[in-house]
Amino acid sequence: MRVSEQELYDLMKNKLMKAGLQEDAADDVADVLTFADHRGIHSHGAVRVEYYAERIAKGGINTHPHYEFEQTGPSSAVFHGDNGPGHQAAKEATEKAIEMAEENGVAVVGVKNISHSGALGYFVEMAAEKDMVGISMCQSDPMVVPFGGTEPYFGTNPIAFSAPTNDDRMITFDMATTVQAWGKVLDARSKNQSIPDTWAVDENGEPTTDSNAVHALVPVAGPKGYGLMMMVDILSGSLLGLPFGGHVSSMYKDLTKGRDLGQLHVVINPAYFTDKTQFKAQLSQMLNELKEQPAAKGYGEIYYPGERGRLRSEAYDKDGIEIVDDIYDYLKSDDVHYDRYHGKNRFAE
Ligand code: NAI
Asked: For labelling alongside 346, which of 119, 180, 210, 293 has CA 20 to 30 A away?
């Protein structure tokens, strides 16, 4: 099914309002979700609406949050999210971080007590659009073994980075710290397919190709990804006095309570470190040089981080965004949700 960006946004916004979000919040959440689908990050777009709608309807996302921005130093602040929609809290916190970095060169803003916030690329690009560098990271629920372990401890704890160039390109690197997203395992299960033995482990901590035997995901690049996901957890959890590691709330277990998740957004104003124009020109040159590099056999060409998402957006602008039929039917329906998530675990099957 192909839909226009506007139709997708409208459908998601309507559904979120029907579930109970105020219009301004539904606007923000739908905007972040549309960004994800438009870039081809379908794991964090419309596919999530039914889950959010159920959590909103059951009280696990505060529909009347009292946000509080607490500036704790010239370059530091804590945004209290009151378990409101994570997308909205993260957006407002990033806007504040950009203002602070404009004034003081650097801003480090922690966001605490929020729900899931989707694709982090959205927030770092807000900074790059203002000619700044954005770095964002956040906690998520435990589903990854520590390197060499058998039981999940950390989440897929993503980290994102964006920087401007002096042309219309933007560098956007945005990744979970696992080899693959959990959604890809679910996808393989639903199609009765096997998975590469590098994605996940079974209950003995052994690599598995059986998607049904998956017990936990593995960190990207072994001990290095393990260290990275720990860093993300510390900076977006413990640093803000929030639950950490294996204590982070489950996405699906109890949809009636707020998730109390944390994030960290760092915004750097290049003008405080170098000549801003030169900085952006150098990044453009870097991308040009990368694009001119010879590609290895089987690769066709070299892409810079974020380029494939942009190419997908251009294609979607012409042909419409690709959405699974069932998701489109749900978005068009009058139903708010189908009671599919509350109480579920093992990562909602
Ligand atoms: P991915 O594996 O699709 O892409 C990771 C990065 O690699 C991207 O920056 C992409 O531009 C780059 N890339 C991919 N192929 C490339 C190529 N051929 N050449 C150059 N660069 C290339 O992303 P992943 O890890 O599946 O994450 C998807 C999304 O999930 C992200 O937006 C992330 O923020 C989000 N996420 C959110 C969570 C949350 O709790 N809010 C938890 C985990 C992930």
From this structure: 119
pTM for this model (two decimals): 0.96
Give per-residue pLDDT as tens, 201-238.
Answer: 999 999 999 999 999 999 999 999 999 999 999 999 99
Nearest to 178 by CA among 141, 127, 132, 124: 141
Residue nearest to atom 31 of ligand 1 (CA): 119
Among the atoms of ligand 1, which is closest to the Cα of residue 309?
11
Q: Indicate if ligand 1 lies below 6 Å from the C-beta of 83.
A: no
Residue in 87, 116, 215, 265 annotated catalytic: 116
Catalytic (active site) residue 116? yes
User: Angle between the 23-38 and 86-104 helix axes, to the nearest 10 degrees?
Assistant: 80
- Is the distance from CB of 205 to CB of 145 less than 8 angstroms? yes
Query: Which tokens hold the place of 170?
Result: 């933007």
Dist. CA 128 → ligand 1 center (Å): 17
Q: What is the pLDDT of residues 152-200, one digit of tens each?
A: 999 999 999 999 999 999 999 999 999 998 878 887 887 889 999 999 9
Q: How far apart are the first and last CA of the chain?
A: 25
Angle at 46 between CA 42 and CA 48, to 5 degrees: 95
The sign of the dihedral angle between the CA atoms of 206, 160, 63, 27 is negative
Ligand 1 atom 2: the closest Cα is on which residue? 175
Architecture per CATH, 2-275+309-332: 2-Layer Sandwich (3.30)
DSSP letter, residue 250: P
* Element at 291 (helix H, strand E): helix 276-292
The domain limits of the chain are: 2-275+309-332
Residue 333: how many other CB atoms lie within 10 Å: 10
Regarding the beta carbon of 305 and ligand 1, being less than 6 Å apart is answered yes
